[in-house]
Amino acid sequence: MSRILINDGSNRVVLENVLLAKSTVARMRGLLGRRSLRTDSGMLIRPCQSIHMWFMCFPIDAAFLDKDLQVLRIARNLRPWQLAFAPRGTCCVLETATGVLDSINKFDRLSLE
Q: Does domain 2-112 have CATH number 2.60.40.780?
């Protein structure tokens, strides 16, 4: 299912198409197998506490979010073969194309519509 992601503080649309990865298979697969990610699309992986870039073909940005979708940490420009560990309290991870999260800051609250 695709949803719209909004920054509650600025009321700005961050992503037009957010895919939800909730099943075990969908979470494990993540963005693997894709050659790129459009700047209006992303994937919200829930539950998720860390991510890896093994076998990825392109860099991404990742936002680590708590249960209320508040940003705990942003990892920018993660390149293939890197790891990213989540801070305590992380419930889910939002993966986007690089640069998409430039307008998002730590402690911003996001919402899905």
A: no
Quote the pLDDT of residue 62.
94
CA–CA distance, 95 with 20 (Å, rounded to integer): 11
Kindly provide the residue ranges of all beta strands, DSSP E only, lying in 11-102, ordered along the sequence: 12-21, 41-45, 50-52, 60-65, 71-78, 83-85, 92-97
The first and second tokens of residue 38, run together, are 């459009």
Instruction: Please give the angle made by the CA atoms of 40, 46 and 52, to the nearest 5 degrees.
Output: 80
What is the C-alpha separation between 112 and 80, in angstroms, rounded?
28
Q: What's the pTM value of the predicted model, to 2 decimals? A: 0.86
